[in-house]
Amino acid sequence: MSAGVGVRKSWSPSQIILTVVGAAVSAVMTAPLVWTLFTSFKSEAEAVAVPVRWLPKDWTAQAWKNIFETGNITNWFVNSLVVSICVTFVVVLVSALAGYGFARTEFRGKNALLGLVMAGLMISPAVLGVPLFTTVQSMGMIDTYWGMILPQCAPAAMVYILYKFFQGIPREVEEAAFIDGAGRWRIFFTIVLPLSRPSLSAVGIFTFIASWNNFLWPYMATNNPDLMTMPNGIATVMNSYGIQWAQLMAGGLMAGLPLIIVFVFFQRQIVAGVAHTGLAGQ
Amino acid sequence: MTTLDTTAVPGAVRSVAAVAEDGNRARLGRMLQHGGWFVAPFLLLYALFVLVPILRGLWLSLTDANITGEGASFVGLDNYREALGDPLMWESLGHSAYFTLLVVPCIVVAAFLLAMLAHHIEHAKWLWRLCFFAPFLLPSAVVGNMWRWMFNPDTGLIDHIFGLESAWLTQKSTAMTAVVIATLWWTVGFSFLLYLAALQNIPPHLYEAAALDGANAWHRMIRITLPMLRNITGLVVALQILASLQVFDQVVVMYEFGPGPEQSTRTLVQYTLEQGFTSYRVGYASAISILFFLIIAIVALGRMWLLRKREEGTR
Amino acid sequence: MGQPDLNRRQLLGGLGGLAVAGSLGFAAVGTGADALASGAGTRVRYWNLFSGGDGANMIAMLDAFRKANPGIDVKDSTLRWGNPYYTKLAMAAAGDRAPELGVTHLGRLAGFAPERLLDPFDREILARYGVREEDFDPALWKRSVIDGKLYALPLDIHPQLNFYRKDVCEKAGLIGDDGNLVPLTSTDDWFDALKAAKKAVRRGIQTVGVHASDQNFAWWFFMSFYAQAGGTYYDSGLTDVTFDTDKATEVLEFLRRHITDGYNVPGAPDAEHFINGGAFVWEGGWSVPVYSGPKLDYGATPLPALFGKPATQAESHAFVLPRQAERGGAGNEAAHRLAAHIVLHAVDWAGGGHIPAHLPTLSDPAYQKLRPQSEYASAMDHMALEPEAWFSGSSGTLSQRIGPVVVAANLGSVKPEAVARRMRRVLEGLLEMRNPMGGGAA
């Protein structure tokens, strides 16, 4: 076994074994997804038929047609998009500013504030959901887009990641601009941000995934089915005709496939983004 | 990483600005250069949606507030007293802890093995990454529904493939295992990527040197790979413990927002939300939230303490 | 429809402002889609928890209403029964974003904090649309009134029933001269009947479905037989627990015996076994459409009175007006109108197995023709109810705490005597808990 020491690709016996094992594990990992896909192309009757069959006997797009025609699902999809895009935009902007402020400027109380923010790494809606709900409720934001978006916009972790990153940028880069008389803001927007594109996209990608898939907070913050996001709608709103598995699976794929398709195309960036944001916790 | 030399900059700002401008404009300009403006937007959001809820939670936990936000009165430590004597609270905490205990080792081992596999296969690398990571991109609600369907004794895939007739989701003995399996499948991809990145960061010359010394693959793994992965393992374990203690989504979806067979899968987050939003006891729910926050804080601080100790050890 | 888009545009516009000024204009921007009235006449948002046969019936009734009232735009949403529904309805009311009309189980009313989370019905508006107090079962109406105000408009009663297959029971000699199930009046009668029925049932099919591992059904069936035995939970002032552990033990042993004697397999799909040839299944009236679909020859009675007086657990669906700070106007009027319409057209609703709360419907020939509905209409006179307290009602705190305890006895993981004591402790614990909405309601 050549331990990744930059050898040419070969089909040595060990590579064949590894590839076979990899294929088997991949089959296990993707089986539930594939099965979900097949189920969504069955009729409702066939979906619950015993014994279980992998492939639909009669392929039908009825379930897909139904979710578009009768359900709220297109509405939820747009809601999910709006919320995730807004959250991503605000988080990237706000945490880049804060990361830079903490890394590169001096002001009284900075270290105390930084400590306070770091303490926030431990807070999540799962831990403080009920008080967060009453806070947002008292602002009159339950069942609004703002109520869903803004509480997702204060992730201390993202500030920390960018703070670490900005600390790593050599000071000389900025100093030249200072001497030319540029202000902090100009330096930030014209020099620092362009340099940070990989880190910013890592934060952005990670935030988008987290927000698109966020269940708990939108679950607490929205009751009106018209305003729900995909995960929340799928879990709490029901078809009036009862649980219909083929439709449920089609809806689930609607919610899950966009990110998977995006992943296929932007694999390198996403892998780097997840690894980067995760590793920054070290 | 880099040095933390931060003394020169503010002076530079002031002097540059002073030379370039004068009068009010200069003062305004100087004011805008203040670092506080950079952190202000975040701090505002942070204050509104993190700090205020903590303080509010602390206050609410001392009252008998209900969900309407009206007519709460101070009850002292009654809520905490009740929580500490509430068997359901302890049971729910126990379920969360039990889940953590089951799922964290599984994820760590599986993620490591998957990463080793993906790292060493030389062909179609993107394919393995895609297959191992894809489930992580699904929303929890979708995962919950999928696995509820997978575990169905009549129409589900699991019993069909393995020739079982086990009602996974309706008996106490298998209820939590089912959640663990679903969670492992769903989240292993994240830790997998972390391990993969760490493997790729191991300098190849270490292996080359070892190969020259005649170490075989097994020895290289024991002597180089595993020690080099110690930090990332610490990180994965810590992240997984914190996330698993807060488990909620996939469990409630799999058990249709109920407590599971014989109440065997109700987690602490679920119990808190039940108290707050089903029984409308916001004060009591806040007290449990604060206790839960303390537990999370202890775990997080414990990790920091371990890290610091190790750093001192290596110095 | 349409509003979310508008709001989205507002929001995106506002976001630019947010980014530039760093100021949060949410109070102005975030008022939400629902506050705005749609252009297409009066809008009534109506949240319910009906799915399956009920859902289909409700949709048909709503369509009929829409046809008759083109000026009213009914926007109905179905949320999952149980926690999600009640949580969301309460949170929407608490956050002042409630729909115009909702549905609740009547047992939940006390705990739903009528004065805080609900608005009372305007009886004059209801009267205008034909709803009169004297047309309702007095007991039901009384439960809907709190502090003199009508907080709920009862729609139906849905009792727990003993469904029996006439073909199978005929073979077992359990069908009387009238073509219905012979009366069974003691536990011995019942188990004799099961013994006979078991012989008439195919191998691999269970004799009776009792939903042994379902915490809701387990509790409902316990309640039924415990009430037959004359058991109570609290004294009238809700100060003392009057739970009789001896009677409870007897009932729990009775329930457990279905499993130990091999008449029931816990966790089996009870409805499917019944369809495939099981003799009995205990279920709510809402299962009627499930069994009428496959054209089974079956009947349904209230749960047989095996412990003395007849009693069977029953709940009621009722319309409610979730609290809106500015309730009134055309939307409110339309909500009253919709609720009245559905309550008065309860024959269609009864097709789903429910007993109509609107009494004149019971004597409607169309209702009397319904089988097996008319066979169990008497169940409304013998309802076994949860105590009237804030923790009661469908999927409420009481049932969530006590249901799993009953299941433990059914499955044999805990001895019946111990379960009875545990149930008593649950009941005691609930009394000690503070009513979160502060007295009054209990």
UniProtKB/TrEMBL annotation, chain A:
Subcellular location: Cell membrane
A biological process term (GO) from this entry: transmembrane transport
UniProt keywords, alphabetically: Cell membrane, Membrane, Transmembrane, Transmembrane helix, Transport
Gene3D superfamilies tied to this protein: MetI-like
A UniProt-annotated Pfam family: BPD_transp_1
Homology family: Belongs to the binding-protein-dependent transport system permease family.
Keyword Transport listed: yes
Name recorded for this polypeptide: Carbohydrate ABC transporter permease
Organism this protein belongs to: Streptomyces sporangiiformans
Lineage: Bacteria, Bacillati, Actinomycetota, Actinomycetes, Kitasatosporales
Keyword Oxidoreductase (UniProt): no
Spans through the membrane: 16-38, 76-100, 112-133, 145-166, 187-210, 245-266
Domain of life: Bacteria
Automatic annotation (TrEMBL), chain C:
SUPFAM superfamilies: Periplasmic binding protein-like II
InterPro entries: Bact_solute-bd_prot1, SBP, TAT_signal
Name this polypeptide is given: Extracellular solute-binding protein
PROSITE patterns reported in the protein's UniProt record: TAT
